[in-house]
Amino acid sequence: MEKDVEAPPRVDGGLKGYEALAILGLTRKEAELYLSLLQLGEASAHTLMRLLNIQQPHLYSLLTNLKKKGFIGWRHGRPKLYYVKNPAHVMEEKIESIMASLDILKNTLKEIYTNSRRYREQPAVEVIREPRNIFKLIKSVISRTSHELCILMSSNYMVRLVDDVVEKAGSGVRVYAITFPDLRHGLVNAFMEGGVRELRSNSLGRFMLVASDCTQTIYIPRSTLSSGERQNYAYFFTGVEMPAFFTHRFYSEWCRSNQIFSQAVRLENKLFSHRMFVYELTRLRSRGDSGIMVRVSGVDTRSGSELTVRGWVEDVFAEDSDTVYFTVRTPEGKRYSVGGYDAVTEDIEAENIVIESITPPRQSSELLDIA
């Protein structure tokens, strides 16, 4: 017959202790039992029932679970004694198991993420009515831009946005602006002094547009913000597909517009939209820079898997606004053609593009020969 053993005070593992054991797969009751047994060293079922004030069937269920999970063992005898295994060894086994599970989870999630890349951010469209609401939204989208802002706006509204646009340009955002049908007084100097990358104009704007970081776009019919219109509305798109589509439309208008001024291209570790990056490439190459090192992250158009390449830009193709891509050669000598969103014929559908370095022409030739 088992002797009565004076049970130690009931263990309070504390919230963090229970949470830590929960990470290792223990329920709250299992954690309480484990910590009590850890303090006792070993104990019989009778002692544990008395200490934890639980019924025998419940206790045996908890003990069985702890043994299956590798935390305890038992010695046969009269009575049977339960003991904890060396916590250090248990932790090592659990860590190995968790790491193996995380590797499996990582690969599984990566596959799901790749296969559903077009739906990473649920696309949405909203119709905005009334000029004051549209103008408020335009200012809000501009303020949230982090890397690149493309804005096509009538001149009477562009002058009202000067402060907002200049503020973003001053913070390092690349701003490409098109205005129509004319240039308002002071706009050119304000944009040039404020750091806007380039300003263009044309006499017949087909629509108005604000494209922010290729993730948010406001599309506005040209007549919407004109006085006297009964129906005033704009479309606000978020997600991937429509903002990318309208950034391409902006590029088409960009090619049709007349340059008013252009600031020098600067080396910057900021993301580019594909079309405007190709435009900057043509500018760099026109001034003689050929050693342009870039990092491109996107999707392999053949396998659908994620891909990141780093190398020198070799060729740029931008003969028209619809067929625009460039090629990259890696230090290992591999060549990739890089297209924009929804690319089909190119090797990579680019999502992120960063210029890492620009090497003077003579040095870049040497580097390319070595690669």
Automatic annotation (TrEMBL):
Family statement: Belongs to the transcriptional regulator TrmB family.
Organism of origin: Caldiarchaeum subterraneum
Domain Transcription regulator TrmB N-terminal: 21-87
The organism's place on the tree of life at top rank: Archaea
Gene3D superfamilies given in the database record: Winged helix-like DNA-binding domain superfamily/Winged helix DNA-binding domain
Residue span, Transcription regulator TrmB C-terminal domain: 124-357
Transmembrane region(s): none
UniProt protein name: TrmB family transcriptional regulator
A Pfam family per the record: Regulator_TrmB
